[in-house]
Design a protein that fits this description.
Elements (H helix, E strand, L loop, with lengths): L1 E5 L28 E3 L6 H8 L6 H5 L3 H5 L8 E6 L4 E6 L10 E5 L10 H8 L4 E2 L1 H4 L3 E6 L11 E5 L7 E12 L6 E16 L4 E8 L8 E4 L18 E7 L5 E2 L4 E4 L12 E6 L3 E6 L2 E6 L3 E11 L4 E8 L3 E2 L3 E3 L2
Antiparallel strand pairs: 1-5, 2-3, 3-4, 6-10, 7-8, 7-12, 8-11, 9-10, 9-12, 10-11, 13-15, 13-22, 14-21, 15-20, 16-19, 16-22, 17-18, 19-20
Length: about 350
């Protein structure tokens, strides 16, 4: 349970000396309402889109500082989002009783009921499972070395034996590094994208340790890797632009296809070491290639300018790789497309 206190919104401009300064570069959406009551199924991106032409710029009109962006106050169904057009500014409140008036109130809600930043059902499989394994993690990783009665493959309820397990960890994710992630321009190997096969629990420590397979999406066999199981995450980052330049590319699309569209997951060749963090919004740029013009002066080759055609929302970050959800696009997203600060 989480206890959240929301202030009275009447006269809020008096509390902020900067409230009278208009944000001329933040544009309101067409027919933006004066208020909106949050309902179950909303996302922060959807709510922002009701008020702003660029939903990812919500933190600017909420006047959030950096810490609030990384760990924002959660928003719940039943609360009311108010628009002050003089900024524009957005504020949060809650109607109490039948008067329709907005008043401060102390109340309790579970974290699970909070409105997520983006559709969690789309990214949920990517939040708690290891997705990327670098070479350092491959070397010396916990590995299944045998199955009970020497079966070639096993499933839920079966027993397996593994080496190099940390005795402090009881539950493990079973992974199979299947696809090398390579830079689309240089061909450099960045990491291995792993397939999640299921989970297992240690029943007896030793070398090898004994584990029971708890769940199996695919058959599990000797040579598959074990990585520590991660605790469930509450994804509440709000969209915001990076504070620095980002120069990356789409390196893979989930399920191995070459093109995808809105609300699909892509992997990028930029990660934590480049300053990328969850909640970052990046613009998509399409490479238009080159054109050859034959005129009076002979043949001329021109590099055509890239086209900005969509937005990504980064939701999970590794050292050299990050995963993002396509939020807006006016065409197919393709492996090799560039991503940059919007």
């Amino acid at each position: 349970m989480i206890r959240i206190i929301f202030p009275l919104l009447v006269g809020i401009s008096a509390l902020f000396s900067s409230a009278s300064i208009a944000q001329s570069n933040v544009r309101l959406a067409d027919n933006a309402p004066d208020s909106y009551t949050v309902v179950k199924g909303d996302t922060l991106w959807d709510i922002s889109g009701r008020f702003l032409s660029e939903p990812w710029r919500w933190p600017e009109v909420w006047r959030m500082n950096r810490d609030q962006i990384r760990n924002p106050h959660l928003i719940y169904p039943g609360q009311v989002v108010l628009l002050d057009r003089s900024g524009p500014w957005l504020s949060i409140g809650r109607r109490i009783g039948g008067s329709g008036k907005l008043q401060p109130k102390v109340y309790e809600e579970t974290l699970e009921n909070a409105v997520p930043s983006i559709p969690v059902h789309v990214i949920e499989p990517f939040l708690n499972k290891p997705l990327v394994i670098d070479q350092a993690n491959l070397e010396g990783a916990a590995t299944i070395v045998a199955t009970e009665t020497s079966r070639v493959m096993t499933g839920a309820g079966d027993t397996v034996f593994a080496k190099n397990l940390d005795p402090a960890i009881e539950v493990w994710q079973i992974m199979r590094p299947a696809r090398p992630l390579k830079h689309p321009l240089t061909g450099e190997l960045i990491a291995y994208e792993a397939d999640n096969l299921g989970s297992a629990r240690v029943t007896a420590h030793g070398e090898p340790a004994t584990l029971e397979i708890l769940s199996a999406i695919e058959e599990v066999g000797a040579g598959d890797l074990l990585l520590p199981s991660e605790a469930p995450k509450v994804f509440s980052y709000v969209p915001h632009a990076p504070e620095h330049a980002v120069d990356g590319h789409v390196v893979s699309i989930h399920r191995g296809v070459q093109e995808t569209g809105r609300l699909h997951v892509v992997a990028l060749d930029t990660g934590a070491r480049d300053g990328v963090e969850p909640g970052h919004v990046l613009s998509l740029f399409r490479n238009r290639g080159t054109a050859v013009y034959r005129g009076d002066n002979g043949k001329e080759t021109f590099v055509l300018p890239e086209k900005r055609y969509g937005l990504l929302f980064v939701f999970r970050v590794f050292d050299r790789v990050s995963y993002a959800l396509v939020m807006e696009t006016d065409g197919p997203v393709t492996v090799g497309d560039a991503v940059r600060k919007p």
